[in-house]
Specification:
Layout lengths: L4 H15 L7 E4 L2 E4 L3 H10 L4 E3 L4 H6 L4 E3 L1 H10 L4 E3 L10 H4 L4 H6 L5 E4 L8 H10 L3 E5 L18 E3 L2 H13 L6 E4 L7 H20 L7 H13 L2 H35 L1
Parallel strand pairs: 3-4, 5-6, 6-9, 7-8, 7-9
Antiparallel strand pairs: 1-2
Helix pairs in contact: 1-2, 1-11, 8-11, 9-10
């Protein structure tokens, strides 16, 4: 997302979180220092850096800190830092997954292994259909990650509300999400969990257009023999080109919706934990 649109969106997302009773804490690495929560100035700095900020997964954290660099944290790195300071709920657009032909390339996002070992709940819109959704769900099962769909029987596919693949669990309210997270913590499972929130219905028409375009472009990669690390950048750039910016608008809409749901979940979780504490005392 280009500047200043990325900066304005980030501010709007933080405002949505605040308006719904939670405290936003955008995570990044600036000048080699991990930040849990950014000032407006720091947020704008990160936005202006854009692609100049290093994409930082768990693997890259030590390096970015060591060189005094600036890092935009992926889901895995953000979960790592959130867990360190006791943040139980994390909101993002979507998670990484198993790439198509991942059984050959072993191209599997570190987001999935992080979810298997870090007890943070990730509120997201699922994974993009450019990834292998059924294998992603299988890998999450192997990692012991609870996967729930919000008000849906199906796991969402980012731009579309339905992927065609049933979610292992369903939750219908922030309160049900909170109970699920609380149980995960109390049982000491040590793993994270996913709450898959479908894209808002108002954006579904654009989402369906984008999904159709994605399938067309995926066929192009096969015909042009574009494989490996070159495939995903090609697909994303081509989809953005063919949809005339519709994919960016849909992306912003779903991120804001995830922030709204995530804030409600965080508030419900805190109320549940406070209630349990007072009952025990």
């Amino acid at each position: 997302m280009p500047y200043p649109q990325n900066f304005e969106t980030a501010k709007q997302v933080e405002m949505i979180v605040k308006e719904n009773g939670a405290v936003p804490a955008t995570i990044a690495i600036l000048n080699g220092i991990p930040h849990i929560g950014l000032t407006t100035t720091e947020l704008e700095k990160l936005a202006k850096l854009g692609h100049k900020a290093l994409k930082t997964s768990r693997r890259d954290i030590a390096y970015v800190v060591a060189i005094g660099g600036n890092g935009a944290t992926t889901v895995s790195a953000t979960m790592f830092f959130a867990a360190k300071v006791g943040i139980p709920v994390f909101v993002t657009g979507g998670i990484g997954g198993v790439h198509r032909h991942g059984e050959i390339s072993m191209d599997i996002s570190s987001d999935l292994t992080e979810l298997g070992r870090t007890p943070v709940a990730v509120v997201c819109a699922g994974v993009k259909s450019i990834l292998d959704i059924p294998r992603t769900l299988e890998y999450l099962e192997t990692q012991g990650v609870t996967v729930a769909a919000y008000n849906s029987e199906e796991f969402p596919a980012f731009f579309t509300r339905r992927s065609g693949f049933k979610a292992p669990c369903r939750v219908n309210s922030p309160e049900e999400c909170a109970k699920l997270i609380d149980s995960n913590v109390k049982l000491g499972l040590g793993s994270g969990l996913i709450i898959g929130v479908p894209i808002p219905e108002a954006s579904e028409a654009a989402g369906n257009l984008i999904e159709s375009t994605i399938q067309t472009v995926v066929k192009e990669t096969v015909e042009k023999n574009i494989t490996g690390n070159a495939a995903t950048p090609y697909i994303l750039a081509r989809v953005n080109e063919l949809t005339g910016g519709a994919s960016l608008a849909a992306n912003i809409a779903l991120v804001k919706n995830n922030a709204y749901i995530g804030a409600k979940v965080a508030v419900s979780l805190r109320r549940l934990q406070d209630s349990s504490f007072h009952s025990a005392n």
